[in-house]
Protein: Translocon-associated protein subunit delta
Amino acid sequence: MVTKFVISVLAIALFNGVKAQGCQNPQVEAASFTSLDATIVTQIAYITEFTLKCDNPLPENYALYAEVEGKPLTAARIGENKYQVSWTEEPSTARSGVHEVRVLDEEGWASLRRARRSDPNANVAPLLAIQLQHPGSYSGPWVNSEVLATALSILVAYIALHHKSKILA
Structure:
């Protein structure tokens, strides 16, 4: 009876050890999207969708976390082995260029949090890193059309009055 109990405990421990194993040899296919027109929106949206393939099968509730420039985010599961990371920024603070989305599993996220308790600038190697390219957002022309129309009408009126005074003189 004791041996069956010990074997059962060892089998459960072995099963949980295999289940808790992280992604081995991660392969990722990613697509990224950003808001490009800041004239009509109040927030610039950044969205990265990716498919994660591992050599070992992952559990259905495999949680992933992300970090972008020190901002903690959660990777939402949107399908089988498909995840999405998204965030928004004010147009005034949104910068163009490459944003690195660092994706970590639960073990990596816990390690990062432990490391950050003692050193706020500490880093842990991510499970994968995705590069999101943001070309910048269009926030309108340098000169509004109303200002340009007013300036041109003043210029035309000045030229007309100047030539009128020359003709009458």
Remarks:
- Strands lie at 27-34, 44-53, 64-68, 71-79, 82-89, 97-105, 128-134.
- The first strand starts at residue 27 and ends at 34.
